[in-house]
Amino acid sequence: MTKPIALITGAGRRLGLHMTRSLLNQGWHVVALTRSRIGELAALAETDVALDVVTCNALNDESVEQTISLIKQRYDHLDFILHNASIYEKDSKHASHLGQFYDDLYKVHMKFPALLNYGLKSLLTNSVRPTANVIHVTDIYAANPNAEYALYCSTKAGLENLMLSFAKQLAPHVRVNAIQPGPIKFLPEHSSAEQQQVLSETLLPVEGGFEALQKAIESILDNEYMTAAVIRVDGGRSVT
After folding, report:
1. CA dihedral sign of residues 49, 50, 54, 59
2. Do β-strands 80-83 and 51-55 pair in parallel, antiparallel, or remain unpaired?
3. 56 near 8, Cβ under 8 Å?
4. Could you tell me which of 17, 22, 98, 149 has the fewest CB atoms within 10 Å of its CB?
5. pTM, whole model, 2 decimals?
6. Sign of the CA dihedral with 129 first, then 131, 132, and 135 last
7. What is the C-alpha to C-alpha distance for residues 42 and 64, in angstroms, rounded to an integer?
8. What does this protein do (predicted)?
9. Which residues are CB-neighbours of 42 under 8 A, at least 6 positions away?
10. Separate counts of helices (H) and strands (E) for the chain
């Protein structure tokens, strides 16, 4: 296969699904990692041969290792990894089992991306593009944590630190960067009052939409002199 190949984690919903569709439309082959092969992603795979849906449980080491082995068996190169899989929940929701919750956050936000970066390094260095790319989707809270999401914020900060280490380790053949999203797209459980509160604290008081993140991702892919950078896409919320 000579066309570029992208691997997207958390590809079954929200940004992951949006970027899967976008890259397919741009002529990429996409390996979509998801916990279960259901919904829009599964339907898309039935009609687009350039989409390879792979089920992977980021909380299970054996599943992650099997996924890495499977990808290395199927492909001889990889051009882009988007580390998008995430758990975004308040600490208080898991008060009765904080230890397990913290373990899950660490596995999804830090261990899973690290294992993929290490395990697929040989494919990245064989990219058909001038350089391969790895993008870690972190959060503006990585630099200025929200106390209600203390555990989430700490592991997103860890993911951002890993970005710097891998940028050093994989240069010059692989560029590694991070994107810090702000209020891109509210979750269904966000009340209208919560939404208005967030937007009132944002310099550009609207939802950015997944297209805003898409443009940031594409700008990184197109800029061959960019690595170890952190790009905020937050409508100015981080400074308010």
Report:
1. negative
2. unpaired
3. no
4. 98
5. 0.96
6. negative
7. 20
8. Catalyzes the reduction of dihydromonapterin to tetrahydromonapterin. Also has lower activity with dihydrofolate.
9. 53
10. 9, 7
Per residue in 145-191, pLDDT tens?
999 999 999 999 999 999 999 999 999 999 999 999 999 988 887 88
CATH topology of domain 5-239: Rossmann fold (3.40.50)
Mean pLDDT for the chain?
96
Q: Which residues of 71-80 are buried (b: 16+ CB within 10 A; e: fewer)?
A: beeebebbbb
Q: Where are the domains of the chain?
A: 5-239
| CA-based radius of gyration for the chain | 17
Strand order in the sheet with 29-34: 51-55, 29-34, 5-8, 80-83, 132-137, 174-181, 230-233
33-68 tens-digit pLDDT: 999 888 899 999 999 999 999 999 999 999 999 999
Using CA atoms, how far apart are residues 234 and 55, in angstroms rounded to an integer?
31
C-alpha span between 38 and 57 (Å, rounded): 14
Place of tokens 């810090």: 180
| Backbone dihedral angles phi then psi of residue 8, each to the nearest 5 degrees | -125, 125
Which amino acid type is present at position 1?
A: M
Return the half-sphere exposure (C-beta side, CA atoms, 13 A cut-off) of residue 222: 6
Measured N-to-C along each axis, helices 39-47 and 14-25 cross at an angle, to the nearest 10 degrees, of 10
- Biggest alpha carbon–alpha carbon distance for the chain: 50
